[in-house]
Amino acid sequence: MDAFTRFTNQAQGRDRLFRATQYTCMLLRYLLEPKAGKEKVVMKLKKLESSVSTGRKWFRLGNVVHAVQATQQSIHAADLVPRFCLTLANLNRVIYFICDTVLWVRSVGLASGVNKEKWQMWAARHYCCSVLLSLLRDLYEISLQMEQVAHDRAKREESSSQVPLGYSVADEETEWLQSFLLLLFRSLKKHPPLLLDTVKNVCDVLNPLDQLGIYKSNPGLIGLGGLVSSIAGIITVAYPQMKLKTH
Q1: With 50 as the cut, is the pLDDT of residue 125 above it?
Q2: 140 within 8 A of 81, measured Cβ to Cβ
Q3: How many CB atoms lie within 10 A of CB 220?
Q4: Alpha-carbon torsion 18, 19, 20, 22, what sign?
Q5: How far apart are the C-alpha atoms of 110 and 29, rounded to whole Å?
């Protein structure tokens, strides 16, 4: 109970819970819309989704400052590739949150002259760039992990006088895809924060790709992706050791 209280006391924790609720409503609405007699339930889900989305904007008002701080931290990363990817990703997040704030100001009637469609496209474009750059960093980290796992396996085979049962050099040459997938599985299994971050970013990229018209998805897929991403975010907030660290 104390852990839950600490979690909900954090702005990020509350935002993740609201986000999970928002995308759950979107997913349920998509599943119920084709069914007869569910019109009232669908309307209630739509209203709840809209209310939660509006509430989330209050939690995001200070995210520009957090994104600027994250940019300052990523500049000092020791490895060049994460430094490049994360710095650019965080800069795009800063611009995204600025666009999001402008849209919020318009929605409350403080700047009715703002072109909503134009700012929404800018927000989607910079959010998409941020997520893709984060995914690029994940792929780089995965390649390092796979290299390490392959190196460890090679050392074990050198020290062993017997080839493991069911494995041969010919198998690796002819069934390279199976070998690659097995290596990928072992690498991610050894590094759960990397797996969690990769899954989160893959799910996050669906919405902006749909908004930009690059890859059209249905609300059900976007809702499912948003829900999975939100659960991954909740895990990283509740258990900080599951957050992918920058070295």
Answers
A1: yes
A2: yes
A3: 15
A4: positive
A5: 31
